[in-house]
Amino acid sequence: MKPFKLMCLLIIPITFSKLYAQENQPDKSDLLDLKLQLIDSKLELLDSKIQIWETKPQELEITLNKLDDKVRELQFNPEELNNRFRVMDSLISEYKKLAEEKDIIYREYSAQTFQDTTLEFIGRHRYAIALNPVRIFEGTMEISLEYRINDRNTFEISGMATYANSDGISNYYLKNQSLEYFNRDLNAYDPYTSDNLSGFGTTFQWKNYLLPSVNKRYYALKGLYASPYAMYRRIWITGLDMQFNEETDLWEEVEIVQKLNVLAGGVIVGWQFPIAKVLSLDVFIGGVIRLSHYDTESGFTKYKKWDNIDYSGVLPRAGIKIGILK
């Protein structure tokens, strides 16, 4: 019995192992089939990608051919276009030359109304006629003409006519004159009072406007300027003096007439304001050297009051002018 039992125990494990191996074999074959199918699908995908890559260069070539055809249809000629640009450049240079000859002023366009009116003002006004009201209280009428040469420079000339007497608005000016004449009988200078001044004169100025190169809002006839100044006046001074007449042994009233030449030169700095595009106000200040000479004397006058008409020396000069723009 024991040998039989031992054989049974050996046969049973072997039988079970064979049955288990037979059951696992189908599972492995199914897995292998799935893998093969996956490989086939990947190969098909790769093949489709290769086909797409092969067609891309052909499509690109077709597109480039179409672009070449369109460029040919344009009939573009670079050399002809360059020739046209050269012609335009020559026309522009000729226009600029003509503009310079005709003194046309170029300015950038601005939307601001002030700049627009400034450009109109430049194109319309070339000179200003002005009056010096301060001179009126000295019995002198001074009228000046300022002419614009270019955008930065003007030339001004003025004329003066003098007639002052003790009955007019120049009475205060005459009373404050300390005048003397040389009395040959006494061989000395005698003071006398003038009741009349008459004469003429002229002034010259070259005004250089300093702001146009900095700000286009300013131009000749507007803004800050510096100017050399020159003046000449010829004046007759008439007055009365009491002289002793030895023949009649009486004091007599004698008329004294002296002829005076006045020269002056210096530098003026001022600011000219256009008003409503029609009027101008010129405010100025500076310094001058004035030299006065009587016809009856050998040299220039000396030791005179600075507010005397026959003063010689350094003087400040200031005033205003009111004018009309043309």
Task: Give the SSE map.
Blueprint: H1 2-74, H2 78-101, H3 113-124, E1 127-131, H4 133-136, E2 140-148, E3 153-165, H5 171-175, E4 179-183, E5 188-209, E6 223-245, E7 250-275, E8 279-294, E9 313-325
Antiparallel strand pairs: 1-2, 1-9, 2-3, 3-5, 4-5, 5-6, 6-7, 7-8, 8-9
Would you give an account of this structure?
This protein has five helices and nine strands, in the order αααβαββαββββββ. The protein is an alpha+beta fold. The protein has a domain of 213 residues. Strands 1-2-3-5-6-7-8-9 form an eight-stranded antiparallel barrel. A hairpin with a 4-residue loop joins strand 4 and strand 5. The longest helix is centred in the first third of the chain and has 73 residues.
List keywords for this structure.
326 residues; alpha+beta
